[in-house]
TrEMBL record:
Gene that this polypeptide is encoded by: der
Organism encoding this protein: Sphingopyxis fribergensis
Record: residues binding GTP 1: 11-18, 58-62, 121-124
Family: Belongs to the TRAFAC class TrmE-Era-EngA-EngB-Septin-like GTPase superfamily. EngA (Der) GTPase family.
CDD domains in the record: EngA1, EngA2
Annotated keywords: GTP-binding, Nucleotide-binding, Repeat, Ribosome biogenesis
NCBIfam families to which the protein is assigned, alphabetical: GTPase_EngA, small_GTP
Official protein name in the record: GTPase Der
Function: GTPase that plays an essential role in the late steps of ribosome biogenesis.
Protein backbone atom coordinates (compact mmCIF):
# COMPACT_ATOMS: atom_id res chain seq x y z
CA UNK A 1 0.00 0.00 0.00
CA UNK A 2 1.31 3.46 -0.87
CA UNK A 3 1.73 6.01 1.87
CA UNK A 4 2.20 9.69 2.51
CA UNK A 5 5.61 11.22 3.09
CA UNK A 6 6.31 11.91 6.77
CA UNK A 7 7.79 15.29 7.70
CA UNK A 8 8.99 15.99 11.25
CA UNK A 9 9.44 19.48 12.73
CA UNK A 10 12.39 19.78 15.12
CA UNK A 11 14.14 22.57 16.96
CA UNK A 12 14.78 23.96 20.39
CA UNK A 13 11.85 25.00 22.62
CA UNK A 14 9.64 27.97 21.75
CA UNK A 15 10.76 28.57 18.17
CA UNK A 16 7.24 28.07 16.75
CA UNK A 17 7.09 24.37 15.81
CA UNK A 18 3.52 23.86 17.02
CA UNK A 19 2.38 27.06 15.30
CA UNK A 20 3.71 25.76 11.98
CA UNK A 21 2.17 22.34 12.67
CA UNK A 22 -1.24 23.92 13.23
CA UNK A 23 -0.92 25.96 10.02
CA UNK A 24 -0.02 22.91 7.95
CA UNK A 25 -2.86 20.75 9.29
CA UNK A 26 -5.26 23.69 8.99
CA UNK A 27 -6.57 23.34 12.54
CA UNK A 28 -5.43 24.33 16.00
CA UNK A 29 -4.63 20.79 17.09
CA UNK A 30 -1.43 21.39 19.05
CA UNK A 31 -1.43 23.50 22.20
CA UNK A 32 0.43 26.80 21.72
CA UNK A 33 1.61 29.08 24.51
CA UNK A 34 4.31 31.70 25.04
CA UNK A 35 6.16 29.62 27.61
CA UNK A 36 8.73 27.12 26.30
CA UNK A 37 8.33 23.36 26.53
CA UNK A 38 4.56 23.15 25.94
CA UNK A 39 4.80 20.18 23.55
CA UNK A 40 6.03 16.93 25.10
CA UNK A 41 4.76 13.97 23.10
CA UNK A 42 4.99 13.61 19.35
CA UNK A 43 1.81 14.76 17.67
CA UNK A 44 0.91 13.68 14.14
CA UNK A 45 -1.52 15.20 11.65
CA UNK A 46 -2.36 15.29 7.95
CA UNK A 47 -0.52 18.23 6.44
CA UNK A 48 -1.68 20.12 3.35
CA UNK A 49 0.33 22.78 1.55
CA UNK A 50 -0.75 24.22 -1.82
CA UNK A 51 -1.85 20.82 -3.09
CA UNK A 52 0.83 18.75 -1.36
CA UNK A 53 -0.43 16.09 1.07
CA UNK A 54 1.89 14.62 3.69
CA UNK A 55 2.07 13.39 7.27
CA UNK A 56 3.39 16.09 9.62
CA UNK A 57 4.85 15.38 13.08
CA UNK A 58 5.20 18.01 15.80
CA UNK A 59 7.93 17.23 18.33
CA UNK A 60 9.04 18.46 21.73
CA UNK A 61 11.72 21.12 21.96
CA UNK A 62 15.19 19.55 21.78
CA UNK A 63 17.16 20.06 24.99
CA UNK A 64 20.46 18.64 26.19
CA UNK A 65 19.52 16.75 29.36
CA UNK A 66 20.21 13.30 30.73
CA UNK A 67 17.95 10.64 29.18
CA UNK A 68 16.55 9.74 32.62
CA UNK A 69 15.05 13.22 33.11
CA UNK A 70 11.72 14.34 31.63
CA UNK A 71 13.38 16.68 29.05
CA UNK A 72 15.74 13.81 28.22
CA UNK A 73 12.84 11.42 27.61
CA UNK A 74 11.23 14.09 25.43
CA UNK A 75 14.46 14.35 23.42
CA UNK A 76 14.45 10.57 22.84
CA UNK A 77 10.97 10.87 21.31
CA UNK A 78 12.17 13.70 19.07
CA UNK A 79 15.14 11.63 17.90
CA UNK A 80 12.83 8.72 17.02
CA UNK A 81 10.55 11.05 15.08
CA UNK A 82 13.44 12.31 12.96
CA UNK A 83 14.78 8.81 12.24
CA UNK A 84 11.33 7.58 11.20
CA UNK A 85 10.62 10.63 8.99
CA UNK A 86 11.30 11.02 5.29
CA UNK A 87 12.50 14.60 5.90
CA UNK A 88 12.77 17.01 8.82
CA UNK A 89 12.16 20.74 9.09
CA UNK A 90 14.85 22.14 11.36
CA UNK A 91 13.39 25.36 12.77
CA UNK A 92 15.26 28.18 14.44
CA UNK A 93 14.08 31.55 15.75
CA UNK A 94 15.15 34.33 13.37
CA UNK A 95 14.76 37.03 15.99
CA UNK A 96 17.01 35.25 18.48
CA UNK A 97 19.55 34.24 15.85
CA UNK A 98 21.66 31.09 16.03
CA UNK A 99 22.13 29.89 19.61
CA UNK A 100 24.62 27.30 20.97
CA UNK A 101 21.72 24.82 21.28
CA UNK A 102 20.82 25.40 17.61
CA UNK A 103 24.42 24.56 16.71
CA UNK A 104 24.27 21.38 18.80
CA UNK A 105 21.02 20.31 17.14
CA UNK A 106 22.54 21.03 13.72
CA UNK A 107 25.54 18.79 14.50
CA UNK A 108 23.18 15.98 15.52
CA UNK A 109 20.99 16.39 12.43
CA UNK A 110 24.01 16.35 10.10
CA UNK A 111 24.94 12.96 11.56
CA UNK A 112 21.52 11.52 10.68
CA UNK A 113 20.49 10.17 7.26
CA UNK A 114 17.19 12.05 7.20
CA UNK A 115 17.12 14.97 4.69
CA UNK A 116 17.01 18.31 6.51
CA UNK A 117 15.30 21.55 5.45
CA UNK A 118 16.41 24.56 7.48
CA UNK A 119 13.54 26.91 8.36
CA UNK A 120 14.09 30.32 9.94
CA UNK A 121 10.85 31.24 11.70
CA UNK A 122 9.82 34.74 12.84
CA UNK A 123 11.87 36.05 9.92
CA UNK A 124 9.65 39.07 9.22
CA UNK A 125 11.28 42.45 9.83
CA UNK A 126 14.92 43.49 10.24
CA UNK A 127 15.49 41.35 13.33
CA UNK A 128 14.53 38.29 11.33
CA UNK A 129 16.89 39.21 8.50
CA UNK A 130 19.88 39.10 10.85
CA UNK A 131 18.91 35.61 12.04
CA UNK A 132 18.47 34.48 8.43
CA UNK A 133 22.02 35.53 7.61
CA UNK A 134 23.38 33.78 10.71
CA UNK A 135 21.59 30.54 9.79
CA UNK A 136 23.97 29.90 6.88
CA UNK A 137 26.62 29.02 9.48
CA UNK A 138 24.68 25.86 10.43
CA UNK A 139 25.88 24.10 7.29
CA UNK A 140 22.60 23.31 5.47
CA UNK A 141 21.28 24.35 2.07
CA UNK A 142 19.65 27.73 1.57
CA UNK A 143 17.40 28.41 4.58
CA UNK A 144 13.72 29.25 4.17
CA UNK A 145 12.57 32.52 5.70
CA UNK A 146 9.18 31.90 7.27
CA UNK A 147 6.52 33.35 9.54
CA UNK A 148 4.47 30.43 10.83
CA UNK A 149 2.08 32.79 12.58
CA UNK A 150 1.37 35.02 9.59
CA UNK A 151 1.88 32.53 6.75
CA UNK A 152 4.78 34.31 5.06
CA UNK A 153 7.26 32.12 3.16
CA UNK A 154 4.78 29.29 2.55
CA UNK A 155 5.55 29.21 -1.20
CA UNK A 156 9.27 28.73 -0.49
CA UNK A 157 8.43 25.92 1.92
CA UNK A 158 6.27 24.34 -0.80
CA UNK A 159 9.20 24.41 -3.23
CA UNK A 160 11.45 22.71 -0.68
CA UNK A 161 8.95 20.00 0.24
CA UNK A 162 7.70 19.22 -3.25
CA UNK A 163 10.62 17.01 -4.40
CA UNK A 164 10.28 14.93 -1.21
CA UNK A 165 6.50 14.63 -1.16
CA UNK A 166 6.25 13.90 -4.90
CA UNK A 167 8.26 10.73 -4.31
CA UNK A 168 5.30 9.17 -2.56
CA UNK A 169 1.86 8.25 -3.85
CA UNK A 170 -1.07 9.85 -2.06
CA UNK A 171 -2.81 7.28 0.13
CA UNK A 172 -6.28 7.15 1.57
CA UNK A 173 -5.45 8.16 5.11
CA UNK A 174 -8.28 9.18 7.45
CA UNK A 175 -7.79 12.80 8.41
CA UNK A 176 -6.95 13.76 11.98
CA UNK A 177 -10.23 14.73 13.67
CA UNK A 178 -10.96 18.41 13.06
CA UNK A 179 -10.93 20.83 15.92
CA UNK A 180 -14.69 20.98 15.49
CA UNK A 181 -14.95 17.45 16.91
CA UNK A 182 -11.66 17.27 18.78
CA UNK A 183 -11.34 20.94 19.36
CA UNK A 184 -12.60 24.34 20.17
CA UNK A 185 -15.72 24.50 18.04
CA UNK A 186 -17.51 21.67 19.87
CA UNK A 187 -18.42 18.18 18.72
CA UNK A 188 -19.86 17.63 15.28
CA UNK A 189 -23.02 15.60 14.88
CA UNK A 190 -22.23 12.00 14.06
CA UNK A 191 -23.64 10.51 10.88
CA UNK A 192 -25.34 7.47 12.34
CA UNK A 193 -25.94 5.98 8.89
CA UNK A 194 -22.21 5.91 8.17
CA UNK A 195 -20.54 2.51 8.60
CA UNK A 196 -18.62 1.98 11.81
CA UNK A 197 -14.96 2.83 11.29
CA UNK A 198 -12.08 2.37 13.72
CA UNK A 199 -13.11 2.27 17.38
CA UNK A 200 -12.43 5.71 18.85
CA UNK A 201 -11.27 4.96 22.38
CA UNK A 202 -10.22 7.75 24.77
CA UNK A 203 -8.36 7.13 28.03
CA UNK A 204 -9.13 9.70 30.74
CA UNK A 205 -8.53 10.06 34.46
CA UNK A 206 -6.69 11.95 37.16
CA UNK A 207 -2.97 12.75 36.78
CA UNK A 208 -0.57 9.83 37.20
CA UNK A 209 -3.27 7.16 36.82
CA UNK A 210 -1.13 5.43 34.18
CA UNK A 211 -2.91 6.47 30.97
CA UNK A 212 0.20 6.80 28.80
CA UNK A 213 1.73 3.63 30.25
CA UNK A 214 -1.43 1.72 29.37
CA UNK A 215 -1.41 2.92 25.75
CA UNK A 216 2.29 2.12 25.38
CA UNK A 217 1.59 -1.42 26.62
CA UNK A 218 -1.35 -1.74 24.21
CA UNK A 219 0.62 -0.78 21.10
CA UNK A 220 3.82 -2.51 22.22
CA UNK A 221 6.18 0.47 22.01
CA UNK A 222 7.23 3.53 24.02
CA UNK A 223 5.22 5.92 21.87
CA UNK A 224 4.17 8.22 24.72
CA UNK A 225 6.36 9.76 27.39
CA UNK A 226 5.85 8.23 30.82
CA UNK A 227 7.43 8.67 34.23
CA UNK A 228 6.80 9.22 37.93
CA UNK A 229 6.04 12.92 37.42
CA UNK A 230 2.34 13.78 37.47
CA UNK A 231 0.89 15.72 34.54
CA UNK A 232 3.42 14.72 31.86
CA UNK A 233 0.82 14.54 29.08
CA UNK A 234 -0.51 17.89 27.89
CA UNK A 235 -1.87 17.47 24.37
CA UNK A 236 -4.47 14.85 23.56
CA UNK A 237 -2.47 12.46 21.39
CA UNK A 238 -4.06 10.11 18.86
CA UNK A 239 -2.35 6.77 18.24
CA UNK A 240 -3.60 4.39 15.54
CA UNK A 241 -3.49 0.73 16.57
CA UNK A 242 -4.49 -2.65 15.16
CA UNK A 243 -5.81 -5.14 17.72
CA UNK A 244 -5.59 -8.75 16.64
CA UNK A 245 -7.99 -11.25 18.18
CA UNK A 246 -8.95 -14.74 16.97
CA UNK A 247 -7.32 -14.13 13.60
CA UNK A 248 -9.19 -10.87 12.99
CA UNK A 249 -7.65 -7.39 12.88
CA UNK A 250 -9.64 -4.55 14.44
CA UNK A 251 -8.75 -0.89 13.82
CA UNK A 252 -8.62 1.35 16.89
CA UNK A 253 -7.82 5.03 17.40
CA UNK A 254 -6.47 5.52 20.92
CA UNK A 255 -6.54 8.98 22.53
CA UNK A 256 -4.20 9.73 25.40
CA UNK A 257 -5.33 12.74 27.41
CA UNK A 258 -4.01 15.05 30.09
CA UNK A 259 -4.86 14.24 33.69
CA UNK A 260 -7.89 16.10 35.04
CA UNK A 261 -7.59 17.54 38.52
CA UNK A 262 -10.32 19.26 40.52
CA UNK A 263 -11.32 22.51 38.87
CA UNK A 264 -10.33 24.54 41.94
CA UNK A 265 -6.75 23.27 41.63
CA UNK A 266 -6.43 24.13 37.94
CA UNK A 267 -5.14 27.70 37.95
CA UNK A 268 -2.40 27.82 35.31
CA UNK A 269 -3.43 28.72 31.76
CA UNK A 270 -1.53 25.80 30.22
CA UNK A 271 -3.21 23.23 32.46
CA UNK A 272 -6.59 24.73 31.62
CA UNK A 273 -5.78 24.31 27.92
CA UNK A 274 -4.68 20.72 28.51
CA UNK A 275 -7.89 19.83 30.36
CA UNK A 276 -9.98 21.50 27.65
CA UNK A 277 -8.13 19.43 25.04
CA UNK A 278 -8.86 16.26 27.03
CA UNK A 279 -12.56 17.13 27.09
CA UNK A 280 -12.47 17.65 23.32
CA UNK A 281 -11.08 14.12 23.01
CA UNK A 282 -14.05 12.88 25.04
CA UNK A 283 -16.39 14.70 22.63
CA UNK A 284 -14.79 12.92 19.68
CA UNK A 285 -14.56 9.45 21.25
CA UNK A 286 -17.13 6.67 21.02
CA UNK A 287 -16.04 4.80 24.14
CA UNK A 288 -14.22 6.40 27.07
CA UNK A 289 -12.14 4.48 29.60
CA UNK A 290 -11.99 6.17 33.01
CA UNK A 291 -8.71 4.94 34.45
CA UNK A 292 -8.47 4.77 38.24
CA UNK A 293 -5.33 4.27 40.29
CA UNK A 294 -6.02 1.08 42.29
CA UNK A 295 -3.53 2.19 44.93
CA UNK A 296 -5.65 5.29 45.64
CA UNK A 297 -9.17 4.01 45.00
CA UNK A 298 -12.15 6.05 43.86
CA UNK A 299 -12.22 9.78 44.59
CA UNK A 300 -14.90 12.43 44.03
CA UNK A 301 -12.97 13.79 41.04
CA UNK A 302 -13.32 10.40 39.32
CA UNK A 303 -17.10 10.64 39.67
CA UNK A 304 -17.03 14.16 38.22
CA UNK A 305 -15.07 12.92 35.20
CA UNK A 306 -17.42 9.96 34.74
CA UNK A 307 -20.45 12.22 34.98
CA UNK A 308 -18.97 14.54 32.32
CA UNK A 309 -18.42 11.57 29.99
CA UNK A 310 -22.00 10.40 30.42
CA UNK A 311 -23.37 13.91 29.96
CA UNK A 312 -21.59 14.00 26.60
CA UNK A 313 -23.44 10.80 25.73
CA UNK A 314 -20.37 8.56 25.45
CA UNK A 315 -20.15 4.91 26.41
CA UNK A 316 -18.11 4.56 29.62
CA UNK A 317 -15.84 1.86 31.01
CA UNK A 318 -14.20 2.13 34.44
CA UNK A 319 -10.81 0.41 34.68
CA UNK A 320 -8.86 -0.08 37.91
CA UNK A 321 -5.22 0.26 36.87
CA UNK A 322 -2.10 -0.87 38.80
CA UNK A 323 -4.05 -3.94 39.90
CA UNK A 324 -0.81 -5.87 40.29
CA UNK A 325 0.21 -3.70 43.27
CA UNK A 326 -3.24 -3.07 44.82
CA UNK A 327 -3.82 -3.99 48.47
CA UNK A 328 -6.89 -6.08 49.35
CA UNK A 329 -8.06 -6.09 45.71
CA UNK A 330 -11.35 -7.91 46.29
CA UNK A 331 -12.56 -5.38 48.84
CA UNK A 332 -11.35 -2.51 46.66
CA UNK A 333 -13.18 -3.81 43.58
CA UNK A 334 -16.47 -4.27 45.40
CA UNK A 335 -16.12 -0.87 47.07
CA UNK A 336 -15.52 0.90 43.76
CA UNK A 337 -18.41 -0.90 42.08
CA UNK A 338 -20.76 0.01 44.95
CA UNK A 339 -19.65 3.66 44.92
CA UNK A 340 -20.21 3.85 41.15
CA UNK A 341 -23.70 2.41 41.48
CA UNK A 342 -24.52 5.17 43.98
CA UNK A 343 -22.61 8.00 42.29
CA UNK A 344 -23.69 7.21 38.70
CA UNK A 345 -27.29 6.29 39.33
CA UNK A 346 -28.32 7.78 35.98
CA UNK A 347 -26.57 4.91 34.13
CA UNK A 348 -26.79 1.38 35.46
CA UNK A 349 -24.41 -1.40 34.49
CA UNK A 350 -21.24 0.57 33.64
CA UNK A 351 -18.52 -2.09 33.17
CA UNK A 352 -15.85 -2.14 35.90
CA UNK A 353 -12.61 -3.96 35.04
CA UNK A 354 -9.26 -4.59 36.70
CA UNK A 355 -6.15 -4.11 34.56
CA UNK A 356 -2.43 -3.42 34.77
CA UNK A 357 -0.78 -1.13 32.24
CA UNK A 358 2.62 -2.24 33.52
CA UNK A 359 2.11 -6.00 33.00
CA UNK A 360 -0.62 -6.00 30.34
CA UNK A 361 -3.14 -7.87 32.52
CA UNK A 362 -6.73 -7.40 31.39
CA UNK A 363 -5.97 -5.37 28.25
CA UNK A 364 -7.62 -7.85 25.86
CA UNK A 365 -10.71 -7.90 28.08
CA UNK A 366 -10.76 -4.09 28.16
CA UNK A 367 -10.66 -3.82 24.35
CA UNK A 368 -13.26 -6.57 23.88
CA UNK A 369 -15.63 -4.83 26.30
CA UNK A 370 -15.01 -1.51 24.51
CA UNK A 371 -16.19 -3.02 21.22
CA UNK A 372 -19.20 -4.52 22.97
CA UNK A 373 -20.14 -1.18 24.53
CA UNK A 374 -19.82 0.57 21.17
CA UNK A 375 -22.17 -2.03 19.66
CA UNK A 376 -24.73 -1.22 22.39
CA UNK A 377 -24.15 2.52 21.97
CA UNK A 378 -24.85 2.31 18.22
CA UNK A 379 -27.74 -0.17 18.45
CA UNK A 380 -31.05 0.67 16.78
CA UNK A 381 -34.23 -1.13 17.84
CA UNK A 382 -36.96 -1.70 15.26
CA UNK A 383 -40.08 0.42 15.74
CA UNK A 384 -42.30 -2.66 16.05
CA UNK A 385 -40.17 -4.27 18.76
CA UNK A 386 -39.79 -0.96 20.57
CA UNK A 387 -43.52 -0.30 20.70
CA UNK A 388 -44.32 -3.85 21.80
CA UNK A 389 -42.05 -3.32 24.78
CA UNK A 390 -43.51 0.17 25.35
CA UNK A 391 -47.12 -1.05 25.37
CA UNK A 392 -46.27 -3.76 27.90
CA UNK A 393 -44.37 -1.32 30.09
CA UNK A 394 -47.24 1.20 30.13
CA UNK A 395 -49.82 -1.56 30.72
CA UNK A 396 -47.85 -3.05 33.63
CA UNK A 397 -47.30 0.35 35.22
CA UNK A 398 -49.62 3.08 33.87
CA UNK A 399 -48.48 6.68 34.24
CA UNK A 400 -49.94 8.60 37.19
CA UNK A 401 -52.82 11.06 36.93
CA UNK A 402 -51.67 14.23 38.74
CA UNK A 403 -54.63 16.36 39.80
CA UNK A 404 -56.96 13.68 38.54
CA UNK A 405 -55.99 14.41 34.93
CA UNK A 406 -54.83 11.39 32.99
CA UNK A 407 -51.49 11.28 31.16
CA UNK A 408 -51.76 9.25 27.98
CA UNK A 409 -48.63 7.86 26.34
CA UNK A 410 -49.30 6.84 22.72
CA UNK A 411 -46.12 5.49 21.14
CA UNK A 412 -42.30 5.66 21.14
CA UNK A 413 -39.70 5.97 18.41
CA UNK A 414 -35.90 5.89 18.35
CA UNK A 415 -34.73 9.25 17.07
CA UNK A 416 -31.04 8.41 16.78
CA UNK A 417 -28.15 6.35 18.04
CA UNK A 418 -24.72 7.37 19.41
CA UNK A 419 -26.10 7.68 22.13
CA UNK A 420 -29.47 5.89 21.94
CA UNK A 421 -32.11 8.62 21.94
CA UNK A 422 -35.87 7.99 22.09
CA UNK A 423 -38.96 10.17 21.81
CA UNK A 424 -42.28 9.33 23.51
CA UNK A 425 -45.44 10.95 22.12
CA UNK A 426 -48.53 11.47 24.23
CA UNK A 427 -50.70 14.02 26.02
CA UNK A 428 -49.70 16.05 29.07
CA UNK A 429 -46.23 14.50 29.02
CA UNK A 430 -44.80 17.64 30.66
CA UNK A 431 -46.60 16.53 33.86
CA UNK A 432 -44.88 13.14 33.89
CA UNK A 433 -42.77 12.72 37.07
CA UNK A 434 -39.07 11.90 36.87
CA UNK A 435 -39.64 8.57 38.59
CA UNK A 436 -41.72 7.35 35.65
CA UNK A 437 -39.02 8.42 33.19
CA UNK A 438 -36.49 6.39 35.19
CA UNK A 439 -38.89 3.43 35.13
CA UNK A 440 -39.01 3.55 31.33
CA UNK A 441 -35.24 4.02 30.93
CA UNK A 442 -34.45 1.16 33.33
CA UNK A 443 -36.90 -1.03 31.44
CA UNK A 444 -35.16 -0.24 28.16
CA UNK A 445 -31.81 -1.15 29.67
CA UNK A 446 -33.11 -4.47 30.96
CA UNK A 447 -35.41 -5.53 28.11
CA UNK A 448 -33.79 -3.94 25.06
CA UNK A 449 -30.11 -4.39 25.94
CA UNK A 450 -28.91 -0.84 26.64
CA UNK A 451 -26.98 -1.72 29.79
CA UNK A 452 -24.08 0.55 30.68
CA UNK A 453 -24.59 3.31 28.08
CA UNK A 454 -26.37 6.66 28.43
CA UNK A 455 -29.96 6.59 27.18
CA UNK A 456 -31.80 9.82 26.40
CA UNK A 457 -35.57 9.87 26.60
CA UNK A 458 -37.52 12.90 25.41
CA UNK A 459 -41.28 13.54 25.47
CA UNK A 460 -43.50 15.29 22.95
CA UNK A 461 -47.12 16.33 23.37
CA UNK A 462 -49.40 15.34 20.51
CA UNK A 463 -50.83 18.44 18.82
CA UNK A 464 -54.51 19.07 19.41
CA UNK A 465 -56.04 20.59 16.22
CA UNK A 466 -58.77 22.31 18.33
CA UNK A 467 -56.33 24.14 20.62
CA UNK A 468 -56.89 27.41 18.77
Amino acid sequence: MSRLATIAIVGRPNVGKSTLFNRLVGKRLALVDDQPGVTRDRREGDGHLLGLDFRIVDTAGFEDYDAATLPGRMRVQTEKAVREADAALFMIDGRAGVTPLDEEIARWLRSEDTPIILVVNKAEGKQGENGLMESYSLGFDNPIALSAEHGEGIVDLFDALRPIVDGFDAAAFEAVPPRGSLGEDGGDEEDEDAPLGPLKLAIVGRPNAGKSTLINRMIGEDRLITGPEAGITRDSIRVDWQWEKDGEVHEIQLFDTAGMRKRAKVVEKLEKLSVADALHAVDFAEVVVLLLDATKGLESQDLHIADRVLQEGRALIVALNKWDVAEDPSSLFNGVRGALEDGLSQVKGVPVLSISGATGKGIDTLVRVAFEQRAIWTNRVSTAKLNRWFENAVENNPPPAPGGKRIKLRYITQARTRPPTFVVFGTRTDSLPGSYTRYLVNGMRKELGFQGVPVRLNFRNSRNPYDE
